[in-house]
Each structure stands twice: as structure tokens, then as C-alpha cells.
């Protein structure tokens, strides 16, 4: 007779006091240095990234090292705290390589399990905000996607998100995982014109480049999958923050905008649309927090939690941004209002780390259900 299995622990979807304190610190920083006019101005310039803002976020607040153990100079926190930071970055659509460097690249390196040597040194640099690393795979790549390069550091990769801000590229090949400096010989990072101007994309061309081999092919494959899974899971928190901003701003605008001597938000049809959006945002928060908690606790249901979060939050973010543009009326269609930045970020995020359709298929496979 087999012993009964213990029920899995229920996920904690609430925010702790420490997480709320972290949120307050990040929100204050972004309100001071990354308000809407500042972000719009940076997206129109050749320098979308604010180095001083990144230094304050990564080093002064310590956000870059949340996932890195304390013995390597990090905070020794978890994906729950990192999710709070990403929520706030989503609310401000700030051009910052946090998701790509402090989550995906960091998680990939942590998965290698080597705390000494070049891996440990690079993790310490990332935690301190001294360097930015980016996993050199297409931004649309999902876990289990094969490496683009076969065995040599030759070829073109992309589009790679935040490659223009990176000091180090983590390049998976059929031979293993390599760390390649963006300033090394044979490395060319060529910016692209993306839909989402707040998350620049670039192609990376390697021509006989050299790098430091961090892991063999098997370890590299497992580490890259872990990094992409964490990226997809916490991307849901970015989509949540984006949707929350869109809802809040839309409610505020419809309260202040008057037609026929009354607020447009008092019209019944608009009330119903915003109420429906509120319900979607609440559900998205539950899905995103469940994914972050599963990643933090190492739950065996993590792949399912991440797939559910991405399949749902992706749709909610796009819907919220579309409603924000439309319910702002004429001003919502202008370049001066930030609504277009949120719509473009939501659309771009909908294809990042796998589409919603891909994640629905993953849910079906994990639950042994007919695919949609």
C-alpha cells in the first residue's frame, strides 16, 4: 500500500511588508527620474537607456542582485521580490534591462551551479550593477527552443532584447554556453527599429568571436530553459503593472473629462467596460503572483503556473492598453500622451518568450487536455 502524497502548499498571492517597502522605493525612484515626459523623450533619442537610473535601481536599491545569493554580493531574495520590481517597471515602461539581465541572464547563470570561476565573478558583477548581461536568443524564444548556433561563435542572432545595453552576451551553441563581451573582436551589435521603443532590439553578428565557455551543451540547454522559464513567468508581472497603469489612468481621465456637463466615466457603457477590465486585471494579478510564487518556491507546478500566467496576462495587457488609448479619445492617439508606449509594449510582450497560443498548448500538454 502506497503512502498518501502530501497536498502541495497553497501559493501565497499576497504581498509581504518587505515587498511593499521595495515597491515604494522603486516607485519613488521611477516617479522622480522616469516620468512619462522623460520616457517619451528618451524613446525619441539615440540613448533610450538612462545609465544613472539603472545605477540607482541596480546598485543603490539593490534590485539587480535580488536573485543572487548573498555570498556572491546579491540580496538572496526570490522571484517574488523581483516580480514587484518588474511590476513597477511595467507601470512606467522604462527602458531598463532588468528583465533580460537581472532575471533571464542571472537565472541562466545560477542554473549552472558554479559559484566559483567566471560564472561566480559574472554573477557578482551583475548583482552589483557593474555589468549587464543578456542571453543572446531571439526575444520570442521560449523554453526548449534549440540554440541558433551549432558549435562555433559564428552567425547572426536576433532580434535580441536589450543587446545594445549589454556588456556581456550569453551565447548558447550546440557546443555549450559562452560569455562573450560586446566589445570583443568579431562582435557586432546592430540596433533595429522595434515596435516597442522602450525595449530596444538588435541583431548580434559573431564573426570568429571568442568567449569564455561556461558550460557544456547539456548543462547549457538546462540553464537556458530555466532562464527563459523565469523570464516568461516574471514577464506576467510586467504585463500586470502595465495593465494596472492603463486602468488607473483611464479611470482618472474619464472622471475628469466632461461631456454634456457630466463626467464621461459616468456613462453606463463606459462603466461596464472599465468594470470588465478591472475584473481582468484582478485575475491577471492572481495569475502573475502565482507564477512568481511558484518560481520562488521551486514548485513542481512551475511550468504550468508560468504557462497559465502568460496565456492570460498577455491578453489582459493588450486589452487594457487598447481600452486606454480608445477611452482617452483624441488625446490617446497623440504621440505626446504615453498611452501609445503602453500599447506597443503590450503588443511586443505578447510575442516575448512564446506567444499566448504557445503557452495554451503547453497548458493542454501538461494537463493532458485536447490542444486549443
What's the count of strands? Answer: 9
Task: Please give the order of strands in the largest beta sheet.
Answer: 1-3-4-7
Work out the radius of gyration: 21 Å
Q: How would you name the oligomeric state of the polypeptide chains in this document?
A: single chain
Helix content: 40-55%
Walk me through this protein's architecture:
It is a single chain. By secondary structure, this protein is α+β, with helices and mostly antiparallel strands. Helix content is 52%, strand content 11%. The strands form three sheets. It has a four-stranded mixed beta sheet with strand order 1-3-4-7, with helices on one face. Strands 2-6-5 form a three-stranded antiparallel beta sheet, with no helix packed on it. Helix 9 packs antiparallel against helix 10. The N terminus is likely disordered.
Tell me briefly what this model is.
This protein is of the alpha+beta class and 372 residues long.
Descriptive key words:
single chain; 3-stranded antiparallel beta sheet; 11 helices; 9 strands; 52% helix; disordered N terminus
List the helices and strands and how they pair.
Layout: H1 17-33, H2 36-43, H3 51-60, H4 79-92, H5 98-111, H6 117-128, E1 133-135, E2 155-161, E3 168-173, E4 176-181, E5 187-191, E6 201-206, E7 212-215, H7 217-256, E8 258-259, E9 262-263, H8 268-297, H9 302-327, H10 339-349, H11 356-366
Parallel strand pairs: 1-3
Antiparallel strand pairs: 2-6, 3-4, 4-7, 5-6, 8-9
Helix pairs in contact: 1-4, 4-7, 4-8, 5-6, 5-7, 7-8, 7-9, 7-10, 8-9, 9-10, 9-11
Amino acid at each position: 500500500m502506497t503512502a498518501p502524497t502530501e497536498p502541495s502548499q497553497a501559493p501565497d498571492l499576497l504581498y509581504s511588508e518587505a515587498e511593499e517597502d521595495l515597491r515604494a522605493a522603486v516607485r519613488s525612484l521611477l516617479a522622480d527620474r522616469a516620468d512619462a515626459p522623460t520616457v517619451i523623450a528618451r524613446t525619441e533619442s539615440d540613448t533610450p537607456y538612462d545609465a544613472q537610473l539603472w545605477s540607482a535601481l541596480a546598485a543603490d536599491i539593490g534590485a539587480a542582485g535580488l536573485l543572487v545569493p548573498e555570498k556572491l554580493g546579491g540580496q538572496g531574495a526570490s522571484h517574488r521580490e523581483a516580480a514587484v520590481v518588474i511590476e513597477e517597471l511595467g507601470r512606467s515602461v522604462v527602458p531598463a534591462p532588468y528583465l533580460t539581465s537581472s532575471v533571464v541572464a542571472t537565472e541562466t547563470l545560477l542554473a549552472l551551479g558554479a559559484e566559483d570561476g567566471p560564472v561566480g565573478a559574472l554573477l557578482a558583477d551583475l548583482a552589483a550593477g557593474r555589468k549587464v548581461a543578456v542571453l543572446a536568443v531571439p526575444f520570442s524564444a521560449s523554453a526548449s527552443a534549440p540554440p541558433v548556433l551549432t558549435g562555433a561563435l559564428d552567425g547572426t542572432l536576433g532580434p535580441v532584447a536589450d543587446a545594445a545595453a549589454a556588456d556581456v552576451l550569453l551565447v548558447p551553441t550546440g557546443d555549450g554556453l559562452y560569455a562573450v563581451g560586446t566589445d570583443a573582436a568579431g562582435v557586432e551589435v546592430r540596433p533595429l527599429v522595434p515596435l516597442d521603443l522602450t525595449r530596444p532590439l538588435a541583431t548580434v553578428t559573431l564573426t570568429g568571436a571568442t568567449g569564455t565557455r561556461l558550460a557544456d551543451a547539456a548543462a547549457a540547454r538546462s540553464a537556458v530553459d530555466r532562464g527563459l522559464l523565469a523570464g516568461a513567468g516574471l514577464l506576467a508581472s510586467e504585463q500586470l503593472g502595465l495593465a494596472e497603469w492603463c486602468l488607473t489612468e483611464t479611470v482618472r481621465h474619464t472622471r475628469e473629462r466632461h461631456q454634456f456637463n457630466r463626467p464621461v466615466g459616468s456613462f453606463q457603457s463606459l462603466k461596464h467596460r472599465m468594470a470588465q477590465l478591472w475584473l481582468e486585471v484582478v485575475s491577471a494579478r492572481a495569475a502573475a503572483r502565482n507564477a512568481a510564487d511558484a518560481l520562488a518556491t521551486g514548485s513542481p507546478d512551475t511550468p504550468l503556473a508560468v504557462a497559465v500566467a502568460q496565456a492570460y496576462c498577455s491578453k489582459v495587457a493588450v486589452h487594457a492598453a487598447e481600452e486606454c488609448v480608445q477611452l482617452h479619445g483624441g488625446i490617446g492617439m497623440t504621440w505626446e500622451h504615453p498611452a501609445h508606449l503602453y500599447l506597443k509594449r503590450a503588443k511586443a510582450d505578447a510575442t516575448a518568450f512564446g506567444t499566448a497560443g504557445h503557452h495554451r498548448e503547453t497548458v493542454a500538454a501538461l494537463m493532458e487536455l485536447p490542444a486549443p
